[in-house]
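Box S1 | Example of a co-folding query
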Amino acid sequence: MRTKSEKDQEFLRLTREAKSCRLCPRMNASVRVIGPASGSLHAPILIIGEAPGRLGADESAIPFHGDKAGENFEALIEQVGLTRHDVFITNAALCNPKDENGNNATPKGIELRNCSAFLRRQIEIVDPKIIVTLGLQALNALKLIEPHEIDLANGVRKSWQWHGRILIPMYHPGQRAMIHRSFANQLADYQFLYESFRRVGSRNRRASTVAPTSSTIAAIAEKLASNSGGISYFALHKLFYLAEYEFFRSHGRRMTAAYIVRQKDGPYVFEMHIKKLKKAIGGLKTWQSGNRLMLQAEKNVDFFARSNIPKDLDLVIDRVLTKYGAASDAELKRVVYLTEPMRRILRQEKTSRNNFFNRPIDFGSTDAQGELAV
Ligand code: SF4
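Box S1 (continued) | Returned holo structure for iron/sulfur cluster
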Protein backbone atom coordinates (compact mmCIF):
# COMPACT_ATOMS: atom_id res chain seq x y z
CA MET A 1 0.00 0.00 0.00
CA ARG A 2 1.35 3.45 -0.92
CA THR A 3 2.01 6.07 1.74
CA LYS A 4 0.29 9.45 1.50
CA SER A 5 3.45 11.07 0.25
CA GLU A 6 4.03 8.36 -2.39
CA LYS A 7 0.48 8.83 -3.63
CA ASP A 8 0.96 12.60 -3.79
CA GLN A 9 4.22 12.24 -5.72
CA GLU A 10 2.85 9.72 -8.20
CA PHE A 11 -0.29 11.74 -8.78
CA LEU A 12 1.73 14.89 -9.34
CA ARG A 13 3.85 13.04 -11.88
CA LEU A 14 0.77 11.70 -13.63
CA THR A 15 -0.85 15.15 -13.68
CA ARG A 16 2.24 16.69 -15.25
CA GLU A 17 2.43 13.97 -17.90
CA ALA A 18 -1.26 14.40 -18.74
CA LYS A 19 -0.85 18.19 -19.02
CA SER A 20 1.82 17.74 -21.66
CA CYS A 21 0.18 14.77 -23.41
CA ARG A 22 -0.59 15.39 -27.08
CA LEU A 23 -1.60 11.87 -28.14
CA CYS A 24 -5.07 12.86 -29.35
CA PRO A 25 -4.76 15.61 -31.98
CA ARG A 26 -8.35 16.89 -31.82
CA MET A 27 -7.98 17.50 -28.09
CA ASN A 28 -4.89 19.68 -28.30
CA ALA A 29 -6.78 22.80 -27.23
CA SER A 30 -8.78 21.09 -24.48
CA VAL A 31 -8.05 21.27 -20.77
CA ARG A 32 -6.50 18.14 -19.22
CA VAL A 33 -9.05 17.65 -16.45
CA ILE A 34 -6.93 16.01 -13.80
CA GLY A 35 -5.53 17.50 -10.62
CA PRO A 36 -6.51 18.40 -7.07
CA ALA A 37 -10.10 19.07 -8.16
CA SER A 38 -10.47 15.38 -9.03
CA GLY A 39 -10.83 14.63 -5.34
CA SER A 40 -9.09 12.83 -2.52
CA LEU A 41 -6.39 10.29 -3.38
CA HIS A 42 -7.69 8.34 -0.39
CA ALA A 43 -11.33 8.28 -1.49
CA PRO A 44 -13.03 4.89 -1.18
CA ILE A 45 -15.02 5.55 -4.36
CA LEU A 46 -13.53 6.31 -7.76
CA ILE A 47 -16.03 7.56 -10.33
CA ILE A 48 -15.28 7.44 -14.05
CA GLY A 49 -17.19 9.52 -16.57
CA GLU A 50 -16.82 9.53 -20.35
CA ALA A 51 -14.93 12.77 -21.05
CA PRO A 52 -15.05 16.37 -19.79
CA GLY A 53 -17.96 18.42 -21.14
CA ARG A 54 -17.36 21.51 -23.27
CA LEU A 55 -19.42 23.80 -21.00
CA GLY A 56 -18.50 21.98 -17.81
CA ALA A 57 -15.11 20.57 -16.88
CA ASP A 58 -13.43 21.90 -20.04
CA GLU A 59 -14.20 25.38 -18.68
CA SER A 60 -14.03 24.87 -14.93
CA ALA A 61 -11.20 22.26 -14.96
CA ILE A 62 -13.29 20.49 -12.32
CA PRO A 63 -14.81 17.12 -13.25
CA PHE A 64 -18.61 17.21 -13.44
CA HIS A 65 -18.96 20.87 -12.53
CA GLY A 66 -20.45 23.80 -14.39
CA ASP A 67 -22.78 22.17 -16.93
CA LYS A 68 -26.07 20.30 -16.79
CA ALA A 69 -24.42 16.88 -16.39
CA GLY A 70 -22.39 18.28 -13.49
CA GLU A 71 -25.49 19.80 -11.93
CA ASN A 72 -27.32 16.45 -12.13
CA PHE A 73 -24.31 14.59 -10.78
CA GLU A 74 -23.89 16.94 -7.82
CA ALA A 75 -27.62 16.72 -7.04
CA LEU A 76 -27.54 12.91 -7.19
CA ILE A 77 -24.59 12.45 -4.85
CA GLU A 78 -25.93 15.03 -2.44
CA GLN A 79 -29.39 13.54 -2.27
CA VAL A 80 -28.03 10.19 -1.09
CA GLY A 81 -25.68 11.76 1.46
CA LEU A 82 -22.38 11.57 -0.40
CA THR A 83 -20.12 14.57 -0.95
CA ARG A 84 -17.12 15.29 -3.12
CA HIS A 85 -15.04 14.56 -0.02
CA ASP A 86 -15.96 10.89 -0.46
CA VAL A 87 -15.11 10.44 -4.12
CA PHE A 88 -12.35 10.79 -6.67
CA ILE A 89 -13.75 11.73 -10.07
CA THR A 90 -12.11 11.24 -13.42
CA ASN A 91 -12.95 10.45 -17.04
CA ALA A 92 -12.11 7.67 -19.47
CA ALA A 93 -10.66 10.43 -21.68
CA LEU A 94 -9.12 13.26 -19.71
CA CYS A 95 -9.76 15.87 -22.41
CA ASN A 96 -12.89 17.17 -24.09
CA PRO A 97 -13.43 15.80 -27.60
CA LYS A 98 -15.25 18.16 -29.97
CA ASP A 99 -16.83 17.50 -33.34
CA GLU A 100 -16.20 19.65 -36.42
CA ASN A 101 -18.86 22.14 -35.21
CA GLY A 102 -17.20 22.54 -31.85
CA ASN A 103 -19.83 20.54 -29.95
CA ASN A 104 -19.22 17.73 -27.47
CA ALA A 105 -18.34 14.46 -29.20
CA THR A 106 -17.96 10.90 -28.00
CA PRO A 107 -14.34 9.86 -27.51
CA LYS A 108 -13.12 7.55 -30.27
CA GLY A 109 -11.78 4.06 -29.52
CA ILE A 110 -8.22 5.20 -30.23
CA GLU A 111 -8.63 8.13 -27.81
CA LEU A 112 -9.85 5.82 -25.05
CA ARG A 113 -6.89 3.53 -25.74
CA ASN A 114 -4.52 6.52 -25.65
CA CYS A 115 -5.85 7.56 -22.25
CA SER A 116 -6.15 4.08 -20.81
CA ALA A 117 -2.72 4.12 -19.18
CA PHE A 118 -3.65 7.31 -17.32
CA LEU A 119 -6.86 5.68 -16.12
CA ARG A 120 -5.06 2.55 -14.96
CA ARG A 121 -2.53 4.62 -13.05
CA GLN A 122 -5.26 6.67 -11.36
CA ILE A 123 -6.94 3.47 -10.19
CA GLU A 124 -3.62 2.19 -8.84
CA ILE A 125 -2.84 5.44 -7.03
CA VAL A 126 -6.26 6.00 -5.46
CA ASP A 127 -6.71 2.27 -4.83
CA PRO A 128 -10.46 2.63 -4.22
CA LYS A 129 -12.71 -0.05 -2.81
CA ILE A 130 -15.48 0.84 -5.23
CA ILE A 131 -15.28 1.90 -8.87
CA VAL A 132 -18.31 3.48 -10.51
CA THR A 133 -18.58 3.91 -14.25
CA LEU A 134 -20.97 6.52 -15.61
CA GLY A 135 -22.15 5.42 -19.04
CA LEU A 136 -21.14 2.86 -21.61
CA GLN A 137 -17.89 4.50 -22.70
CA ALA A 138 -16.54 4.47 -19.16
CA LEU A 139 -17.60 0.86 -18.62
CA ASN A 140 -15.96 -0.20 -21.88
CA ALA A 141 -12.79 1.76 -21.09
CA LEU A 142 -12.21 -0.61 -18.16
CA LYS A 143 -11.95 -3.52 -20.62
CA LEU A 144 -8.69 -2.01 -21.83
CA ILE A 145 -7.28 -2.45 -18.34
CA GLU A 146 -8.78 -5.85 -17.55
CA PRO A 147 -11.37 -7.56 -19.76
CA HIS A 148 -14.93 -7.98 -18.47
CA GLU A 149 -18.25 -9.08 -19.95
CA ILE A 150 -20.52 -6.63 -18.15
CA ASP A 151 -23.00 -4.70 -20.23
CA LEU A 152 -24.63 -1.54 -18.98
CA ALA A 153 -28.31 -2.45 -19.36
CA ASN A 154 -27.98 -5.66 -17.33
CA GLY A 155 -25.12 -4.58 -15.11
CA VAL A 156 -26.54 -1.35 -13.73
CA ARG A 157 -27.26 -1.10 -9.99
CA LYS A 158 -25.37 -4.31 -9.26
CA SER A 159 -21.99 -4.99 -7.66
CA TRP A 160 -19.47 -6.81 -9.80
CA GLN A 161 -16.01 -8.01 -9.01
CA TRP A 162 -13.46 -6.43 -11.33
CA HIS A 163 -9.72 -6.00 -10.94
CA GLY A 164 -9.90 -6.92 -7.25
CA ARG A 165 -12.54 -4.29 -6.48
CA ILE A 166 -16.26 -3.70 -6.50
CA LEU A 167 -17.45 -2.30 -9.81
CA ILE A 168 -20.86 -0.60 -9.99
CA PRO A 169 -21.93 0.37 -13.51
CA MET A 170 -24.29 3.35 -13.70
CA TYR A 171 -25.70 5.60 -16.41
CA HIS A 172 -24.24 8.96 -17.35
CA PRO A 173 -25.94 11.90 -15.56
CA GLY A 174 -26.12 14.00 -18.75
CA GLN A 175 -29.54 14.99 -20.08
CA ARG A 176 -29.36 12.64 -23.08
CA ALA A 177 -28.79 9.60 -20.87
CA MET A 178 -31.78 10.59 -18.72
CA ILE A 179 -33.94 9.48 -21.67
CA HIS A 180 -32.71 5.93 -21.07
CA ARG A 181 -32.64 6.14 -17.29
CA SER A 182 -34.67 8.78 -15.54
CA PHE A 183 -33.38 10.95 -12.73
CA ALA A 184 -35.56 9.00 -10.25
CA ASN A 185 -34.08 5.72 -11.46
CA GLN A 186 -30.57 7.13 -11.30
CA LEU A 187 -31.26 8.34 -7.78
CA ALA A 188 -32.04 4.74 -6.80
CA ASP A 189 -28.70 3.74 -8.40
CA TYR A 190 -26.89 6.28 -6.22
CA GLN A 191 -28.73 4.98 -3.16
CA PHE A 192 -27.42 1.53 -4.02
CA LEU A 193 -23.93 3.05 -4.29
CA TYR A 194 -24.33 4.72 -0.91
CA GLU A 195 -25.37 1.43 0.70
CA SER A 196 -22.34 -0.29 -0.84
CA PHE A 197 -20.16 2.54 0.43
CA ARG A 198 -21.50 2.11 3.96
CA ARG A 199 -20.92 -1.62 3.82
CA VAL A 200 -17.23 -1.29 2.91
CA GLY A 201 -16.78 1.37 5.63
CA SER A 202 -14.50 4.33 5.21
CA ARG A 203 -11.75 6.09 7.07
CA ASN A 204 -12.27 8.99 4.74
CA ARG A 205 -15.86 9.62 5.73
CA ARG A 206 -16.38 13.21 6.78
CA ALA A 207 -20.11 13.63 6.55
CA SER A 208 -20.51 12.84 10.23
CA THR A 209 -18.37 15.84 11.12
CA VAL A 210 -19.96 18.25 8.74
CA ALA A 211 -23.48 19.47 8.81
CA PRO A 212 -26.09 20.41 6.30
CA THR A 213 -25.84 20.70 2.59
CA SER A 214 -27.23 22.78 -0.23
CA SER A 215 -30.37 24.23 1.37
CA THR A 216 -28.26 25.53 4.27
CA ILE A 217 -25.60 26.79 1.90
CA ALA A 218 -28.21 28.56 -0.22
CA ALA A 219 -29.73 30.16 2.89
CA ILE A 220 -26.32 31.41 4.00
CA ALA A 221 -25.58 32.72 0.50
CA GLU A 222 -28.96 34.44 0.49
CA LYS A 223 -28.24 36.17 3.77
CA LEU A 224 -24.76 37.24 2.64
CA ALA A 225 -26.17 38.55 -0.64
CA SER A 226 -28.89 40.58 1.07
CA ASN A 227 -26.31 43.17 2.08
CA SER A 228 -27.47 46.60 0.96
CA GLY A 229 -26.18 47.56 -2.46
CA GLY A 230 -25.57 43.94 -3.38
CA ILE A 231 -22.42 41.92 -3.21
CA SER A 232 -19.93 40.73 -5.79
CA TYR A 233 -19.86 37.03 -6.65
CA PHE A 234 -16.19 37.14 -5.67
CA ALA A 235 -16.98 38.58 -2.22
CA LEU A 236 -19.81 36.10 -1.66
CA HIS A 237 -17.41 33.15 -1.92
CA LYS A 238 -14.84 34.82 0.32
CA LEU A 239 -17.40 35.74 3.01
CA PHE A 240 -18.78 32.21 2.98
CA TYR A 241 -15.26 30.85 3.45
CA LEU A 242 -14.65 33.27 6.32
CA ALA A 243 -17.90 32.14 7.96
CA GLU A 244 -16.80 28.49 7.63
CA TYR A 245 -13.43 29.38 9.11
CA GLU A 246 -14.97 31.37 11.94
CA PHE A 247 -17.40 28.54 12.71
CA PHE A 248 -14.63 25.96 12.62
CA ARG A 249 -12.51 27.95 15.02
CA SER A 250 -15.30 28.43 17.51
CA HIS A 251 -16.98 25.02 17.23
CA GLY A 252 -14.15 22.69 16.18
CA ARG A 253 -16.18 21.37 13.24
CA ARG A 254 -17.36 22.54 9.85
CA MET A 255 -20.46 24.69 9.51
CA THR A 256 -21.64 22.94 6.32
CA ALA A 257 -20.54 20.15 4.00
CA ALA A 258 -19.63 22.72 1.33
CA TYR A 259 -16.79 21.67 -0.94
CA ILE A 260 -14.44 24.67 -0.87
CA VAL A 261 -11.34 24.72 -3.03
CA ARG A 262 -8.37 27.04 -3.44
CA GLN A 263 -8.66 28.82 -6.75
CA LYS A 264 -6.38 31.41 -8.26
CA ASP A 265 -8.11 34.29 -6.49
CA GLY A 266 -8.87 32.44 -3.25
CA PRO A 267 -11.57 30.13 -1.90
CA TYR A 268 -14.39 28.99 -4.18
CA VAL A 269 -17.50 27.16 -2.94
CA PHE A 270 -18.72 24.50 -5.37
CA GLU A 271 -22.29 24.65 -4.14
CA MET A 272 -22.43 28.39 -4.89
CA HIS A 273 -21.98 28.17 -8.65
CA ILE A 274 -24.01 31.05 -10.03
CA LYS A 275 -26.47 28.76 -11.85
CA LYS A 276 -27.24 26.95 -8.61
CA LEU A 277 -27.71 30.19 -6.70
CA LYS A 278 -30.15 31.51 -9.29
CA LYS A 279 -32.17 28.34 -8.95
CA ALA A 280 -32.04 28.16 -5.17
CA ILE A 281 -32.65 31.81 -4.24
CA GLY A 282 -35.99 33.19 -5.34
CA GLY A 283 -35.88 36.80 -6.48
CA LEU A 284 -32.07 36.91 -6.68
CA LYS A 285 -31.01 39.85 -8.86
CA THR A 286 -27.75 39.68 -10.79
CA TRP A 287 -26.01 42.33 -12.87
CA GLN A 288 -22.61 43.15 -14.26
CA SER A 289 -20.60 46.05 -12.80
CA GLY A 290 -17.51 46.38 -14.98
CA ASN A 291 -16.05 42.91 -14.90
CA ARG A 292 -17.69 42.06 -11.56
CA LEU A 293 -20.78 39.91 -11.33
CA MET A 294 -23.03 41.41 -8.65
CA LEU A 295 -25.84 39.77 -6.71
CA GLN A 296 -28.61 41.08 -4.52
CA ALA A 297 -31.02 38.92 -2.58
CA GLU A 298 -34.26 40.23 -1.14
CA LYS A 299 -34.03 41.81 2.29
CA ASN A 300 -35.98 41.21 5.45
CA VAL A 301 -36.32 37.49 4.92
CA ASP A 302 -35.98 35.37 8.02
CA PHE A 303 -33.58 33.00 6.27
CA PHE A 304 -32.63 30.90 9.21
CA ALA A 305 -36.05 30.38 10.77
CA ARG A 306 -37.40 29.52 7.34
CA SER A 307 -34.61 27.04 6.66
CA ASN A 308 -34.61 25.61 10.16
CA ILE A 309 -30.99 26.55 10.70
CA PRO A 310 -29.49 26.70 14.22
CA LYS A 311 -29.06 30.05 15.90
CA ASP A 312 -25.31 29.63 16.49
CA LEU A 313 -24.76 29.47 12.76
CA ASP A 314 -26.84 32.61 12.30
CA LEU A 315 -24.66 34.41 14.86
CA VAL A 316 -21.48 33.45 13.04
CA ILE A 317 -22.83 34.83 9.77
CA ASP A 318 -23.78 38.07 11.54
CA ARG A 319 -20.29 38.38 13.01
CA VAL A 320 -18.65 37.89 9.64
CA LEU A 321 -21.03 40.38 8.00
CA THR A 322 -20.39 42.95 10.72
CA LYS A 323 -16.66 42.55 10.38
CA TYR A 324 -16.27 42.17 6.60
CA GLY A 325 -19.62 42.99 5.00
CA ALA A 326 -18.39 46.40 3.84
CA ALA A 327 -14.89 45.26 2.82
CA SER A 328 -13.78 45.70 -0.77
CA ASP A 329 -12.91 42.68 -2.92
CA ALA A 330 -9.21 43.50 -2.54
CA GLU A 331 -9.49 43.68 1.25
CA LEU A 332 -11.38 40.41 1.39
CA LYS A 333 -8.76 38.74 -0.75
CA ARG A 334 -6.07 39.88 1.66
CA VAL A 335 -8.06 38.68 4.66
CA VAL A 336 -8.69 35.17 3.31
CA TYR A 337 -5.05 34.76 2.31
CA LEU A 338 -4.08 35.49 5.91
CA THR A 339 -6.24 32.71 7.36
CA GLU A 340 -4.42 29.59 8.49
CA PRO A 341 -5.89 27.12 5.95
CA MET A 342 -4.87 29.38 3.06
CA ARG A 343 -1.45 30.07 4.56
CA ARG A 344 -0.95 26.32 4.92
CA ILE A 345 -1.69 25.79 1.23
CA LEU A 346 0.64 28.65 0.25
CA ARG A 347 3.44 27.12 2.33
CA GLN A 348 2.91 23.75 0.64
CA GLU A 349 2.91 25.40 -2.77
CA LYS A 350 6.17 27.13 -1.96
CA THR A 351 7.82 23.93 -0.74
CA SER A 352 6.68 21.85 -3.70
CA ARG A 353 7.05 24.71 -6.20
CA ASN A 354 3.59 23.93 -7.54
CA ASN A 355 0.29 25.68 -7.46
CA PHE A 356 -2.54 23.77 -5.82
CA PHE A 357 -5.41 25.38 -7.71
CA ASN A 358 -8.67 23.51 -7.13
CA ARG A 359 -7.31 21.65 -4.12
CA PRO A 360 -9.96 21.29 -1.38
CA ILE A 361 -9.22 23.60 1.53
CA ASP A 362 -8.51 21.64 4.67
CA PHE A 363 -9.65 23.47 7.77
CA GLY A 364 -7.51 21.12 9.82
CA SER A 365 -8.03 20.62 13.50
CA THR A 366 -7.94 23.38 16.03
CA ASP A 367 -8.91 24.05 19.58
CA ALA A 368 -8.59 27.75 19.07
CA GLN A 369 -11.57 29.72 20.22
CA GLY A 370 -12.91 33.12 19.42
CA GLU A 371 -12.03 35.66 16.79
CA LEU A 372 -10.52 35.10 13.41
CA ALA A 373 -6.75 35.06 13.44
CA VAL A 374 -6.39 37.76 10.84
S1 SF4 B 1 -7.43 12.33 -23.84
FE1 SF4 B 1 -5.78 11.46 -22.62
S2 SF4 B 1 -4.42 10.51 -24.11
FE2 SF4 B 1 -5.72 11.95 -25.23
S3 SF4 B 1 -4.57 13.89 -25.26
FE3 SF4 B 1 -5.92 13.95 -23.47
S4 SF4 B 1 -4.62 13.18 -21.81
FE4 SF4 B 1 -3.63 12.56 -23.73
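The longest strand covers residues 165-170. Confidence is low (pLDDT under 50) at residues 205-211, 366-374.
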